[in-house]
Structure formats: C-alpha cells, structure tokens
C-alpha cells in the first residue's frame, strides 16, 4: 500500500503487436510474431479466417491478393493451396528492399528457415504453438473475421483449438492468456457460450449513443474502440472504466496517439510498432 500522500503508480499499459511487428515484417507471418516477442510485446494480435477445408489461418483481408502472390478468397482455397504461395515478398516490394539487403527483383527465395518464416501462410495452430513455446507469458488477441458467413464454424473451430492448447480452462486464479475480439457481438457471444473463461473484446469502428454510455454486449468486459473514436470522444475511456470495462485501443501508431492513450489511461494499445511504443511509454 502506498504511503499517505504518495499516488500509486498507474498500471502499465499492455502493448499488443497488431498482426505481429507488422511495420518491420510481413503481417501475420511467423517472422512478424517472433519479432514482436523479441521487441517485448505483451500480446500478439491476429485475424483469423477459415479455409475451404476448415483450417483457421491468420489473414486479414477476405482475399489473399494484397498479401500474397496468389489470388482469390481464403474461403475458396484449401490450406494446401495457400501453402504453395508467398505471403512475405509483397512487403519487400513495398519497402524497396528486403531487410537482409536482398533486392526485391531477386524475388522470394525459400533458402533458409528464416525466409520460410517470412513468406509462409501462418495457421492459428502454429501461432498458438509459438506462444506456448515462448520463454515468458505472451498473450494472444484473436480477431474473428466475417464470422456470420460461416454460421458458427469459425468460432467452433477456434474453441476446439483453444481447448486443445488449454486456454478454455486456465488454472484457478490465472487470467486467461488468450482473448477473442470481434466487430460482431454475435461472434463474441458464440465464443462466450462455448468457452466462458475466454475474455471477449468488442471492437468498435463507430461509436453509437449506447457505446458512449459505456455499454457493451452482454458478457463482454473489454471495449475495443479505434483510436479515432478516442480522438473524437476522449471521455469514452472514463465512461468505460466507470462501467467496469477495460479499454483496448487500435491501431495506435502515431506518437501523439500513444500520448493520448497514456493520458486517458487506456489498458492496452494495439500497434504495428511494439518496440517504439514500449520505448515511448518507457516500459522495461
Ligand atoms: O485490433 C483490432 C483491429 O485489428 C481491427 O481492425 O482491420 O486491423 O482488423 P483491422
Ligand atoms: Ca485485426
């Protein structure tokens, strides 16, 4: 207990690596997540989609065109189709040069394990293994994408995997290391019904009058507003805290926004740049 007159330290803000350390490495690759762990991220964020043959893969867009050398919707492709594609070289092209000095014209060369980790599609199962093998606690924030199309199959497969890795029954007194996020209240409710110990984050792109009062869907304890919402409605954080909710903000890459989040006392910052944000917050 702090001495009289001494203000307690505010709790540290959790830094969540959005799609991995995705400023430095191709989003949603094993390389991006390894880098995020090295950079000290408290948690890793990933989006999940179901392939045509029922595997959850970490891909943001409905189609693979932007982040791979293939084309088409994830939902129409099998994991074996995705496994033949290059999910990393687009990043080198965008940056002009690969971090190891290879010029993008040389293309993607699957020569080393590091190359493979930078260019291969990542399954959620592999990401769960990475987190399980980490030498410290690393949390995972998993976002279900377009869950309505599959009528519960995304959540069913997700809960099966979480069960297999022991995340649906954390030891008594230990907070769950995994949480599920979605813009869809229905998706969160499906997960909560099957796995009540897994916390849910309700993502918000726009703020409604209900949200402004700090209300969230039933059973959800974490609000996930965009940083734009906080810029426009800085009083939201206090309202959500007053209602007993944590606030996890996305996607916070600008220094001024990190400062805003610190001033408002948010609980987690979701960012493409975990190292820089940790440095700015002076987290050790
Ligand atoms: O962490 C939430 C954030 O990722 C939501 O937006 O489009 O990056 O999935 P998006
Ligand atoms: Ca996401």
TrEMBL record:
GP-PDE domain ranges (all copies): 13-281
Pfam families: GDPD (PF03009)
Record InterPro entries: GP_PDE_dom (IPR030395), PLC-like_Pdiesterase_TIM-brl (IPR017946)
Domain of life: Bacteria
PANTHER family hit by this protein: GLYCEROPHOSPHODIESTER PHOSPHODIESTERASE 1-RELATED, GLYCEROPHOSPHORYL DIESTER PHOSPHODIESTERASE
Protein name listed in UniProt: Glycerophosphodiester phosphodiesterase
